[in-house]
Amino acid sequence: MTFYQKEINRIKGICYSNKDQIQIAIGTRNYMENNFDRKLNLDLLSHIKFTSKFHLLRLFKKYYGQTPKQYLIDKRIGQSKSYLKKGMSVSETCYAVGFESPSSFSTLFKKKIGQTPTDFQIEQFSQSQSKNDF
Amino acid sequence: MKVKVLSIPVQNQEKALKFYTETLGFVKKMDVPLSEQNRWLTVVNKEEQDGTEILLEPSPNHFEPAKVYQKALMDAGIPYAQFNVENTQMEYDRLKSLGVEFSVKPTEMGTVKIAVFNDTCGNNIQIVEIL
């Protein structure tokens, strides 16, 4: 057995022995993956997993390294990039990934990606156009 | 600052290019001849070709500490780098069928499932599925 294999077993024993907690965290992430386009909040997520919202928040952060809200924002922004690349309008994209206001979507998108959804879409189109030109 | 290129040390660039493209499924992005037989050789994810490039760097052949470090990691079974996959078990099965050797079979570690394979260029590489 290599040093790394021993370390895997050691760390599993220390950090991942509570299967119930892990299943709550995984179940919450799966729910967000499948329902990111809906209105989600900690009350709903904790209700689904039969736990308190503070406990859920703590567990999710412990096992995924970020809060459910941070995870959901990253998921939605990632999906919105895919929709924008396919030519969906900014406002359609906003609602399709679960955000409620195009202006706050644009602000958040710029903060995370470094450019507005409109600029991102223009850049994507110009890149694919220049590829076709050659 | 932006993360544009990350490097993986390889003992043979041509062999590495073949493995990383034909076996792992990356595509070649940059191939610039440098001194002697060395190249600035990068590969990228096929679906995200504007994403982060992997530089297949021949450092173990030219810098002794790089060679020593790479060998120490290999001997200890420690991955030099890791790639995310949709499904670790499926990727394991696919790579096994292509003759790739694994030192860690698909293993759940809390909220991830990992496996570790030999890239035939001196490195262990870990694949990770987020559960």
UniProtKB/TrEMBL annotation, chain A:
It holds the Pfam family HTH_18. Keywords: DNA-binding, Transcription, Transcription regulation. The keyword Disulfide bond does not apply. It comes from the Bacteria. InterPro entries: Homeodomain-like_sf, HTH_AraC, HTH_AraC-typ_CS, Tscrpt_reg_AraC-type_HTH. Residues 26-123 form the HTH araC/xylS-type domain. This is AraC family transcriptional regulator. It comes from Flagellimonas abyssi.
From TrEMBL, chain B:
Residues 2-130 form the VOC domain. Pfam families: Glyoxalase (PF00903). This is VOC family protein. It comes from the Bacteria. Gene3D superfamilies: 2,3-Dihydroxybiphenyl 1,2-Dioxygenase, domain 1 (3.10.180.10). InterPro entries: Glyas_Bleomycin-R_OHBP_Dase (IPR029068), Glyas_Fos-R_dOase_dom (IPR004360), VOC_core (IPR037523).
